[in-house]
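Supplementary notes for students who missed Thursday's class. We covered one full example, reproduced here. Read the sequence, then the structure, then the short commentary at the end.
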Amino acid sequence: MIKVLIADDHAIVREGLKQIVADTPDITVAGEAKDGQEALAKIAKYNYDVVLLDISMPGMSGLDVLKQLRSIKPKLRVLMLSIYPEEQYAVRTLKAGASGYLTKESAPDELVAAIRKVSSGGNYISRSLGEKLVANLKRNDSKQPHEALSDREFQVMCMIASGKKGKEIAEELLLSVKTVSTYRRRVLDKLGIKNNSELIRYVMQNRLLE
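Structure (token representation):
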């Protein structure tokens, strides 16, 4: 039996994932967590085979949790779940140690297949993401400026590009408005751009919000 921990701040999402897993004879939900701190506490205390980890939890993001749990239980398999498009965060999560990446729009049978694959020691990315990664490698071997951004800088950049204001971003990420402003300035400096309009143009040109 594959024991799964679901870490997501939305109760409705957790219930939906539980319903999908409930229909499979070889997978069971052995725990739930509503935020990163609770997830890390349960991972330290109990044994799971796979963690379904939401990338965009408030406060400690899924990427923050992923990096910390690698030091607690480095062999634990983690499948990242996100509302964001694959090309936006997939590579970052895989480099950080995730075993796979799925968007929350994925079909239930794809989620089940992904859980089974990562639990057996494999890695999971969708066919569409695999094709996009190959296409990107063929098109450009050099690093893009946004690849130099930290995970939090990247997150703030995408939130700005999606139309969110500094106060909204601060509330969602549990940061101060001043800290968000600092991240924004770092993003502009690293990308070599001057304002939000250029930031939005950069994000759209690089298809980071599709």
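Commentary. DSSP finds ten helices and five strands in the chain. The domain at 145-205 is CATH 1.10.10.10 (Arc Repressor Mutant, subunit A). If anything here is unclear, bring it to office hours.
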